[in-house]
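thread: overnight batch results

M.L. [08:02]
morning all. the overnight job finished for the chain we discussed friday. pasting input first so we're all looking at the same thing
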Amino acid sequence: MKKHFIIILFFVVVSGIFFSCKSRNGSTELPAGVITNPNTANGTVDKYALPIISFEKDFHDFGKLISGEQVTYSFKFKNTGKSLLIIANVSTSCGCTVSSFPKQPIKPGEGATIDVSFDSKDRHGLQTKSITVFSNTQPPSTILRIQSSVVEPDEI
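M.L. [08:03]
and the structure it wrote out:
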């Protein structure tokens, strides 16, 4: 009995190590080689050497939509920092909202957009959704928001 327990324990530990080392799809982690660590041994932070993601606006109101309409908004941003800006992932708070973002690094001084689409099908009333942008900035995430008031065609 003791022998079986040791064998099972061995397989649990080995499989835990094996599976924990695998990369997960959709991870928000950036490869270590692309991140400039601003933290120093003495506790000071050199934020001026980092990329900075500066959005023109972080909120957009689509206004009144008829249920079933699909709309898109482009959040414009610029890298106002001193090093390459890398967006690792963009996640949305709801399956009715999808996004696309640049996969290539953004040089200092350059800009791009994060496009967000909202499908109002089967939605009613005030809808507020959040979009989280994960990047190599400090802090590592930025939250954008969209909103709309969804009504039925006969409510207009």
